[in-house]
Amino acid sequence: MAIAGCAIAVVCDLLGASLSDRVGLASDTISNLAAGEWDILSDLGIYAFVVGVLAVTIGLLRWRVTRWDWRLGAGLLVLLAIDYTLIAAYEAYSTGEGMQIHYKLVYFMGAAFPLTVLLTAGQFYEIDRRLGIALYGGGVVWAIAAPFLFLVPTAWDGLYERGLALGKLGWFVFMGVMIWRDPDIVRRIPKEERS
Q1: Which DSSP symbol is given to 23?
Q2: Fewer CB within 10 Å: C terminus or N terminus of the chain?
Q3: Which residue would you say has higher pLDDT here, 47 or 63?
């Protein structure tokens, strides 16, 4: 489900941009696509991604890890799913206060996603040190890179945002693959860390 949700999100974005005569992948953000005639594709992609987020959440909780950082990270995934749903459902471009609310939802996502990666990386470090280091590094890089979206020239902000989105989708796909390959990874977790 996680992999399918991410794949559908990518397909919807690419399809919407190709069908639109005014949205370019490099010069226009994903939000620009949501403001046009093909907004249904943007919303559909986000809803599919929400299903993927929830699938990863369920998979991670199924591992029954009791660490506080792991539980907090998994809890943030639930809040992220709600946040993405609100981004898709709220018609930010058709109401007077829309953009202010949209930006607040985006800011929350920009903080909560890398925090989730960093909070869950500690347990992965216990399982495989290289994996844990890679996840810590990825979370830090994403957290540093995300705010620069607002400084990128408008001719390239769409490409930059899609690069950030691919990094995020990559984490969810990776988690989905790990859960699929080893749904009972709790066997590899030290007994004192199990619930």
Answers
A1: -
A2: C
A3: 47
